């Protein structure tokens, strides 16, 4: 696991585009994630190939929080708890992260389980609160999204 670099942007974009569950963004977003926001992102490699990524940012109004934008593990790397390992990496190398946040649809059991497992590992609380209503997404048919917040996270000695 390591921080992403600019040359990883196209690989991240292709990895996300190949997945049928994540919202697709332009390659430009991944260029920004790998340059301007690389301190809050991680990539996982297997045999020199990127097989996982967690992208995020530190919200300006909540600088002690890490907001996870997307997290993805390629099919050939699933079943190894890689998503949780990437989140743990971001917490350990996050420069004083006290909370990990994301938005999750009510039907996304896998993500809910991931964040519950992270909270348990960290000995931290987990809370859900309304964030975006389905109507906020217009006629796209997108589900509502709830804000999940894990923390506070105690600093490790």
UniProtKB/TrEMBL annotation:
Gene3D superfamilies: 3.40.630.30. It comes from the Bacteria. It is an enzyme of class 2 (transferase). InterPro entries: Acyl_CoA_acyltransferase, Ectoine_EctA, GNAT_dom. CDD domains: NAT_SF (cd04301). Pathway: Amine and polyamine biosynthesis; ectoine biosynthesis; L-ectoine from L-aspartate 4-semialdehyde: step 2/3. Keywords: Acyltransferase, Transferase. GO terms for biological process: ectoine biosynthetic process. Its EC number is 2.3.1.178. Residues 1-151 form the N-acetyltransferase domain. Pfam families: Acetyltransf_1. PROSITE patterns: GNAT. The keyword Transferase applies. GO terms for molecular function: diaminobutyrate acetyltransferase activity. Belongs to the acetyltransferase family. EctA subfamily. This is L-2,4-diaminobutyric acid acetyltransferase.
